[in-house]
Amino acid sequence: MAADGRSPAAGYATAWRWHFYAGLFTAPFLLMLAVTGAIYLFNDELNDWLYPELRFAPSGERILPAGDLVAAVRARYPDATVTRIDMPVAPGRTAMAFVTPKQDQKDQGEPFRAFVDPGDATVLGDVIYSDTLVGFADRMHGSLLLGEGGDALVELAASWALVLVVTGLWLWWPRARRKGRAFRFDRRRQGRGRWREVHRLVGAYTAVMIVFLIVTGLPWASFWGDRVLAPASNALGLGYPPELRHHGGSDGKTLLDTLGEAPWALLQAPLPDTDTGAGRHGHHHGGALPDTRPAAINRVHRALAERGLAYGYRLSIPAGAGEPYSAYTYPARPQGQRTLHLDGEGNLLLEVAFDDYGAVAKAVEYGVALHMGNYFGGINQGLMLLTCVAIVALVITGVGMWWRRRPPGGLAPPPGRGPGRAPLPRRYLLALLITLLALLPLAGASLAVILAVDALWRRVQRALASAG
Predict the structure, then answer these.
(1) Rounded to whole angstroms, how far apart are CA atoms 227 and 244?
(2) CA 32 to chain centre
(3) Whole-model pTM?
(4) 66, 146, 344, 380: which could join 301 in a potential S-S bond, CB 3.0 to 4.6 Å?
(5) What is d(CA 355, CA 54) in angstroms, rounded to the nearest whole number?
(6) What does the alpha-carbon distance between residue 82 and residue 325 come to, in Å, rounded to a whole number?
(7) Which of 460, 408, 429, 393 lies closest to 17 in space, CA to CA?
(8) Cα 202 to Cα 462: distance, rounded to the nearest angstrom
(9) Angle CA(226)–CA(227)–CA(229) in degrees, nearest 5?
(10) Burial of 105 (0-12, 13-18, 19+ CB in 10 A)
(11) Strands annotated E in 160-213
């Protein structure tokens, strides 16, 4: 018996119980995240295979200015608005325009993406992103197609998956009598025991990569990323460059508002007004509507080319008074990220590069590039795919083991209290609760609810026992 009166097996029993409940809750979410994440790892390859007629330019390697391409899309869809154009990532590739149908139409459709041959400005066709395999996987991966509520559920499951990994490692950790076989498969095991061997070893060998995927994915979560990490890092000068606060327009818009996406580092950075910034000229008026004619877009195109912005940049077309044109590059390696804001004359208002980011923003961008399988090309994709396959294997073997041992109609959780077992000391629970509340607020709040319900249930049990 341990010095505090607790059985040496008490910690193991407690870890097993937490592992069971965390696994039961997170299993469907982890399965969904692993499958959709594996699909998105190969988004370019899949889209090239599924939509070659839209992704490759028949005319060859010539690339017309962005304004000419936008004009062609406007002519094809006269009742719609082009909000953004992504220039070809390489010669022989198409440009992609983001199009929003007219808003006052009763039967208005969803926003869609039109593909343009950059050599002769021929519109090759269009797709609704969420209707594509990659688009469905992307939306499902982030929010279960349920908006902010789904995003919160995914974040909660990802946070509890960290508890699942920690308790799993505790259960696996080699004790004295089995140190020699900690990393070896026991071929003598049969039935559920063989499933357990697979579960144990897959978890042991891939735990670090699973934790990496979770940690690098959490900054994109709406609560942890948008309401905790980003505001804190920006306030401390560790996110977007602090000087950007002095260039923000009066409407408080960000790059995310105009482009629909942005590098994580700039998600909450204010968008400069066209009459502010380094390139300010006296003839600008904040109340004037932006010039979005093809000639103006071509001026911006030429200015970006003169400043050496690589092709593949994503250019927003301003819609409201004072809004700038914003272009950014998102290469496989974040060190090449550049974001430029210009007015309709092609004058530079503001430029931000990767070196301007704070330490937290840089770390997140590195993590995102690795998480998405971009940084090291095929090797990176293969390693992340292997981790996704491992998660699927862990879910299947974990649920399979539980299903085989559970009685018909029963939950069959691991034994909790009983002879030789004691609850986890309160100081440990308190430390765990404080840690989760500080680092992962949603997980901490859910743990507080679980502990409160558990305490209430134990009181009810004691009351019923006394009454009996």
Answers:
(1) 19
(2) 14
(3) 0.90
(4) 66
(5) 35
(6) 13
(7) 429
(8) 41
(9) 75
(10) exposed
(11) none
Query: Rounded to whole angstroms, how far apart are CA atoms 70 and 76?
Result: 10
Spatial contact of 317 and 85, defined as CB atoms under 8 Å apart? yes
CA gap 327, 8 in Å, rounded? 60
Q: How far apart are CA 122 and CA 75, in angstroms?
A: 11
Could you tell me if 290 and 323 are in contact, meaning their C-beta atoms sit under 8 angstroms apart? yes
Q: In tens digits, what is the pLDDT along the chain, a chain of 468 residues? A: 444 445 545 677 778 888 998 999 999 999 999 999 999 999 999 999 999 999 999 998 899 999 999 999 999 999 999 999 999 999 999 999 999 998 765 456 799 999 999 999 999 999 999 999 999 999 999 999 888 889 999 999 999 999 999 999 988 887 655 666 777 777 777 777 788 999 999 999 999 999 999 999 999 998 899 999 999 999 999 999 988 877 665 567 888 888 888 999 999 999 888 865 444 444 444 467 899 999 999 999 999 999 999 889 999 999 888 899 999 999 999 999 999 999 999 999 999 999 999 999 999 999 999 999 999 999 999 999 999 999 999 999 999 998 888 888 777 778 755 444 445 667 777 787 788 777 888 888 888 887 788 778 778 877 877 776
Q: Which two tokens stand for residue 361?
A: 């923003």
d(CA 316, CA 394): 43
